Amino acid sequence: MRRLACAALLATLAPVTAGAQALQFRIDEGATTNAFYQEGPVAAHVLATGGTRPRLLVAFPAGNSGVAVWFAPTAAPVQWTLKSLRAQAPTGDTAMHGIVAELELRGGPLTVDKAALGSIRVLRDVQLGQPMPAQVATEAKVEAQRIDWARRRLDDAPGYRIALEITEGRLVSQAGAVTLAPERPDGSIRLRLLAATGERPLTPLSSGQLLNAKAAPDARMRSALQFLSYREKFLAGSWRFDTYFGRDTLMSTRLLMPVLQPEAVEAGLGAVLARLSPQGEVAHEEDIGEFAILRHLASDGTRSDAPVYDYGMIDGDYMLAPVMAAWLVEDARGQARARAFLAARNRLQQSSNAQALLRNLLHVAHNSEAFAAAPTFDHLLALKPGRMTGQWRDSEEGLGRGRYPFDVNVVWMPAALRAIGAFVDSGLLDGVASDAQRQALRAAAARADAWERQARALFEVRLDAAQADAALHAYARQLGVPAEPAVASLAGNGLAFPALSLDTDGRAVPVLHSDAGFGLLFGRPDPDTLARDVAAVMRPFPAGLITDVGMVVANPVFADQAVWGRLGPQAYHGTVVWAWQQAVMLAGLRRQLARDDLPAPVRTQLQQAQARLQALIKAAGEVRTSELWSWRWEQGRYRIEPFGAQGAHEDESNAAQLWSTVFLADPGTHE
Question: Mean pLDDT across the stretch 159-163?
């Protein structure tokens, strides 16, 4: 795990002069400068990381590929300054597309540790200290003031290259070590970074093709979204997830839907439909490019680059129908385009969008039967055998070691069943579904209310005042944060909240969580349930999820003490803030406030929650487009800590994250 020299987050937007058609922007986080470039067939994300563990990394959306050089740890922090970034001029090798970056380094010398070229999936593993596959190891070529790494792809297709060219300073090659050194001990090093990939470029969506006039004028969010949006698919985040992720695509498309152009909505939804399994399961992730070749070499010995799809998650299967219905049934723009969209297919599909959607609806309907017939915990939707993950909290500890997730069972299945009913009633399945299939779908839709009510009851957690008070004081003491505001928020009462998950024996995992936001966005809870769920979220941490730096996504205060460390501020799905979860909660509050059946006290409660969340999101500033961030308690308040900035953190955050741009659809979160 890398350590950044700067603990405080400095996230800024710094436009760079470019041609009229080029997208360029910068995001500085901690000791890493993130520079983005997109023009025609060239799309690249350059990371220059300083501190005591320096690296240079370039990620390409084409083929989810990248190149990187890691340097040996330094005794004192080093600092990179990016001077310029441009596309490489065309060469005789027309398949290669890349960038040229001019950089200055202070604090050197630096000794090259290792380099990796190929799939971002491989680079991610190398970053985390895992061994590099022997097939992709690449020897350096050193000559004069330049060091190069280049190779063909494993199937002999155009591959990858990275070069460092010293323009001020010295390149010293001695005893097998290559060092970048200044001319004098206190001097700087200037170098030219050249990086390119031979993977097939994606087709960018321009700003005008992406957003309508309702979108907020936030330059950083617009730029991040544009970099991640292509006709073929949306990318989940850069640098670590520069490719399709089903859940990220569905949730981002739904949250951004009011401000997206119709073609952009359909690019996102079409990408999901194109990757459904024959049974109608939503693909969580895809292995493409050279990583697909590595997968095929391991499984069948071939060098095929045919994509390999991961269907290990379960939440996307039940998310698809409600998101599709939001566009094709509920949105007037989508209604007008529905039949044409459903008749279409893309290059990955062997069937139409309508036939793909029908497979998913029948899959959902079938999986609703067991619990509807016998509503016991063991008939709920469980994680797949042998897995500890299955929904958006997809780290090993994300669900508190539970097997039956709250969101999938209490929110997504009922929402999917209601969406099935909407599709049948709309007539959009006529001519696609048989009479028997429509009958099965209608029967499934009728199960929605009972499923939601009976599933929710299994997840209920109740604590009396004494239990809550003891847990709050012990947990706050362990974290080194004050307990008083949290205790006061309970006013001497106990509390009730839905569990994060159920374990293998059906016992509730009593972790407070943000997944109630899904229920607000896709459901219609009764006023009492609505008030209780919102209260559980909006209490001050550690009684709830609200801190000075945002809404954390999990809080294990009422769980066993063994869980506290597994879901703490260093954990990927612990007491950390995820930008998109705040957006889900905010959109859900807005949707519930549009109801006309809420008692006045509940409406006031929701309005206060909405105002508080909007204020927190504004206060986060530029960090709000990051994937997630952590916190530290300092000088009497919670302060933002970049996730990945400390060695104790499990991973690092993406500077540009698809679902962190969804605030473009909420003008209340912008100044």
Answer: 99
Looking at the structure, tell me whether residues 449 and 469 fall in a common domain.
Answer: no
Is there a domain that residue 88 lies in? yes
Whether residues 37 and 84 share a domain: the answer is: yes
Contact 225, 241 (CB under 8 A): no
pLDDT grade for 20, boundaries at 50, 70 and 90: low
Angle 216-222-228 from CA coordinates, rounded to 5°: 140
pLDDT of res. 585:
98
Among 165, 197, 229, the domain-final residue is 197
pLDDT digits (tens, 9 = 90+) for 274-294: 999 999 999 999 999 999 999
**Three-class secondary structure of residue 218 per DSSP:** coil
* Residue with token string 């008070």: 469
β-strand partners of 630? 641
What is the three-class DSSP state of 303? coil
312 DSSP 8-state letter? -
Find out whether 225 and 263 touch, Cβ atoms under 8 Å.
no
Owning domain of residue 165: 23-197
Given a cut of 90, whether residue 459 has pLDDT beyond it is yes
pLDDT of residue 207: 86
Domain contains 629: yes
Instruction: Answer yes or no: do 440 and 467 share one domain.
Output: no
Q: Distance of CA 630 to CAs 29, 50, 262, 420, 551, Å? A: 13, 20, 35, 39, 11
Q: At a CB cut-off of 8 Å and minimum separation 6, what does 598 contact?
A: 527, 530, 592, 606
Tens of pLDDT, residue by residue over 521-534, are 999 999 999 999 99
Helix (H) or strand (E) holding 449: helix 448-458
Average pLDDT over residues 434-461: 98
58-76 per-position pLDDT tens digit: 999 999 999 999 999 999 9
If asked whether residues 417 and 519 sit together in one domain, one would say: no
| Residue 480, Ramachandran bin (φ over 0: left; ψ between -120 and 50: alpha; else beta) | left
**Confidence grade of residue 3 (pLDDT, cut at 50, 70, 90):** very low
- The CA distance from 66 to 126, in Å, is 12
Tell me the pLDDT tens digit for each residue of 201-257. 999 998 899 999 999 999 999 999 999 999 999 999 999 999 999 999 999 999 999
Q: Exposure of 647 by Cβ count < 10 A (0-12 exposed, 13-18 middle, 19+ buried)?
A: exposed
* Residue 535, both tokens: 């209260």
372 with 449, same domain: the answer is: yes
Same domain for 484 and 586:
yes
Q: Could you give the number of structural domains in the chain?
A: 3
Given pLDDT bands bounded at 50, 70 and 90, which one contains residue 671?
A: low
Q: Report residue 127 as tokens.
A: 């970053």
> Are 520 and 649 in the same domain?
yes
Is pLDDT of 11 > 50? no
Which SS3 state, helix, strand or coil, does residue 41 take? coil
645 and 555 together in one domain: yes
47 alpha-carbon distance from chain centroid: 18
